[in-house]
């Protein structure tokens, strides 16, 4: 791919995604489970997606340009023990074809557990459940030795008691891979779509659009790989005003919030887009991981007692013909979810 072709594709993506991003950032979105990190490896590196192309099938749900011949005939299962009775995860399988590229089929789900029917007087009568499901078909193809592209097509179902909704969405992604410098750069635009059947008639809600850019590089003389992810590039200001924040000062005469230092405000807004991760690779069978998510720390930490909120860690083990990944991510002082991902290549088993 020459420079002119790359520039043309970039302009197309900007013109195509720009209006969609503007239309979908306002208001409350549905199907937010689509953006929950399911991969134990990604969760350990701070959450969100990964810009790493090494045949890891757990990446393809968030970055379809990672679908390649290296993921051929692989199976990946992931489970997240979330808060309360909530759990979610996915199952993925990939296959490659010589002329048309590589494909990955994924079932992504979330279960919110059981709920008790109750009226305004506290009278109970039975139970009900709530869950959401997405069936995802992904495609990836290498354009040349440096560039690869990919896309996911998602059919979405959401059910809360007797209220149901259906939707359709696509992800598009592109990656630049330079083996000589151990560098990978990925750009993804996720959840571009619409509700086909809303929960309430004629009340169409937007989907949780995300446009992210990731850069990953492995050091030349050390077994260490670092990653920097820039999230939500379609929306600059991700902050909100919390009247309970002791750092927010109020004018004693007018009662209006006082403006913070301009540079401090700019830095806070910029850092809410940044996720940092590191992966130590002492052997080919062992990976030690750590990550930091600034936005998570600012939104979910308790004032004056932040603890390790926003930090995450994990480990990857190659045991026989299986890859086992485990991680924990601190969302709140109350506890940390457990992430487990198991993957294998079926042709190695049979």
Overview of this protein structure:
This protein has 350 residues and is mainly beta. It has a domain at 3-238. The protein is built from 5 helices and 14 strands. The protein has helices spanning 3-24, 40-44, 262-271, 294-300, 346-349; strands at residues 74-81, 87-97, 101-118, 124-142, 147-160, 163-178, 183-197, 210-218, 224-230, 274-283, 286-293, 311-319, 322-329, 338-345. Strand 2 (87-97) and strand 3 (101-118) form a beta hairpin. The longest helix is centred in the N-terminal third of the chain and has 22 residues, at 3-24.
Give the overall form.
globular
Strand order of the largest sheet: 1-2-3-4-5-6-7-8-9-10-11-12-13-14
- Structural Rg: 21 Å
Helix content: 10-25%
Give the tags.
single chain, 350 residues, mainly beta, 14% helix, disordered N terminus
